[in-house]
Model the fold of this input.
Amino acid sequence: MTSSPPALTRIRVGSAPDSWGVWFPEDPLQTPWERFLDEVADAGYEWIELGPYGYLPTDAARLADETAKRGLRVSAGTVFTGLHHGPAVWEQTWEHVSRIAALTQDTGAEHLVVIPSFWRDDKTGAVLEDRVLTPDQWRELTSQTERLGREVRDRYGLRIVVHPHADTHIDTPANVARFLDATDPALVSLCLDTGHYAYCGGDSVEAIETFGERIGYLHLKQVDPRVLAEVRAEELPFGPAVARGVMCEPPSGVPALEPVLAAAQRLGVELFAIVEQDMYPCPPDRPLPIARRTRAHLRSCGAR
Done:
């Protein structure tokens, strides 16, 4: 008889629209938002992210009503940025961020997930810019991210958590380390996504043990090593890679989530760990059974 792992008393697990195949505010291939809320609650989760702005209701009172009646609470909002372009994009960026930050604040959440812009289109694979930043672009990326962290904190009381992501300039362990070394820990924390970090060659347990004090949030996902090998060999963009199934249902992929969650627990701080299984597009009946099984797997890892 195997013993149960220790309870992860500091880890609050949840899920996100992404796990229902949602990447865009509106898309005929996506699960309707009411069904997402019904099913995420049915699967046993209490925490959700807002997903793409406009997918869930943007009226704070209506959103509060819709989540509360299902026993759900919001952990974070998500924004997309291209801050390596410097001050020229600040106004446009802030217009986007401020709307989402205001709604996130109104939900009672405390985090804003910041995703860098892609260097190639995630649907077509068209190369949009060089995949390697110049030293000047790195300086703009780090300084403008610090500015964003300060403004979001001062105006909305939120903490930004920057999400290393495939096909962006903050991707590999080397680039993540460079970004962290050049940013102020008081202003910029990290959202460590276990799937994206593995996709880009990283080890999440090692990351938590190396720069755990910078990790303010977790996304839980796994990659299928076989599909990832194909993706690398064919240099597939992220969108087609997801359509091929590179992000897979736990526990069939890597990294194993139990050691990751145990390492996070050892940090001694409260952390959200939000399941995000990229699978756009997907049939409407596919997400719920996966979500139920994933929630059961997380319980087996100690995430009560």
